Each structure stands twice: as structure tokens, then as C-alpha cells.
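SAMPLE LOG
Freezer: B-3
Tube label: C17
Construct: single chain, 327 aa
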Amino acid sequence: MKLLKLVPDDTNFDFVRLRSWAFGLTLILSVLAIGVTFAKGLNFGVDFEGGLMIEERFASPPDLDKLRSVVDAQGLGEASLQQFGDPRTLTIRLPVQEGADEGATNAAVKKVEVAIAEAFPGATFSRYSTISGKVSGELIRNGILAVVLSILGIGLFAIVRFEWQFGVSTIAAIIHDLLMTLGFFALTQFEFDLNIVAAVLTIVGYSINDKIVIDDRIRENMRRYRKMDMREIVNLSVNETLPRTVMTSVTILLALGALLFLGGHVLRGFTAAMILGIVVGTYSSIYVSSSLLITLGLRSDPNIERAPRGGGIDNAERIAPREPRAE
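STRUCTURE (predicted):
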């Protein structure tokens, strides 16, 4: 039986040739992501913002002004409305009900539910969640701490496992992936909650897995082809791992695609973050992390004269590992 191969084993793409364009695109996208995040902000969920969130589904897209006046009339504080998935599903956020126990919260939810059902026939209550302001602040700190520590730990591992250039390039690529994710959520205004933090950490894990595989192959080829130019070593290593990278990414995207369309709107933000992370992580592994090693001055053997730079792998001189000198 013939095995399925999305990418041939003998590819010879000159990825390094496009590294200047890739670095420019990466810089532009990173700046835009930071700008959008600061300009629009993240749509923090109740996990991070605190308060009471009620989800309602309507028979037809409701009049937002009328809905806001109905909710505000209940005396529970100023309401914030947002579409959730489609125009007929909305989330209603209310301020933290100070001193409210579970019974009082249930009463407030019931009060809003009844008022909306009377004003909008056919509206159905989906769910609600509540969290205090103190707990939400702790969740924000813990979420940021988890992401920062994971990035530092990954960079330290790459430095110890390989060389410092690998650690710097890996951290730079992962930061790029995180900025793209934040920019995406700021632009789309998907709800940013603990599920998204879990997605971000999963993206970091996937990205480092892909990058370590390529870095390990680069390190292996640096020992095998001691006189090969570093540009050619990077090209060779990325081409050798390309079938594995593409196959892994495609299979994960197929699973996430099914989850996106069949998993319901509750998982939509998580799945969207994962899909974006897979695409961006694959791009950064090939064009950011690997090519950045050249910019950082990594050499296979600085004590050996460099081979002339060529346009592709076939132009490079492939030298077998040196035999140990006889005593």
C-alpha cells in the first residue's frame, strides 16, 4: 500500500532566500498586532473581568437599545451587550453584585431572564457565570505568569540543549506567535477567558515541538557537513523536516476544523485560537526561528574555512564528518 505523502521527501526549496521578506512581514504583523491590541483591547470574559455574564438566544436579532433598557430597568447595574457567535446569541454582562451569595445571584439571573422573555418572545436562556473581582485579578496574574514562565523555560531549555542562538530564536518566534494570537482576539473581539489561556499555552507547546525538531536537525547537519555554509544547512534541515511538519499541521487542522464547525459556539474562540496558532507556528518555525539563526551568527565550525554561498542545496559542498586524527 502506497503511503500518503503531502510533501515529497526530496524537496529543495530555498527558504533562506526569502528571510529578509519574512523578517519584514513578521515585524509589520507584530507591530499591527500590538497596535490593534492597545487600540481595541481584549474582550475579557467574566473569568478576568469579574461580574455576572448571562447568555441569551433570541428568535431573531434583537434591538440592542431595547434590550439594554430592559436589562438596566432591573436595577442590577449598567449592562454590557455583545454578540456571541451569531446575531441571535448575545451575552449580557452585569457588574459584580457586591455581597451577593449564590441565592441572590440566581435571583438576579431569573429576574433578567423573565424580563427578557416578556420583552422578546421566543428568547431562551442558555447559561450564566459569575466571578468576583478579587478572583478575576488573581486569574489575570496567574495566566500571565504561566505564559511568561513557559516562554522562559522553553528558551532556557533550547540554550542548554543546543546553543544560545537557538534559545534566542525560539523565544523570538514564540513571542511572534503570541502577538499574532493577541492581535487576532483584539481584532475579532472573541471573548478572552481561561479557555483561551489554555489555547495559548497549547500553541506555545506545539510551536516549541515543531521548532525543536527543526533545531535538532540543524544541529545534526552542522556536525555532519562541517564545511557547508550555514544558509545551506538551514535550507537542508528545513527541507528534510518539511514532510513531517506539513503532515502534522494538516492532521491537527483537520481535527480543529471539525471542532470549529461541530463543537458549538462555546468552543469557537478556543478552536479559532488553536487554528491560528498552528498556521502561525508553522510559518515562524520555517521563516523566523530557523532563519534567525543565520542573523545571530551561528556557525557550524568557525575554525574551518567557509564554503562559497550558493543558491540552493545542490550547490553546497557536503563533507562527511572528519575522522579523528591518529596519534
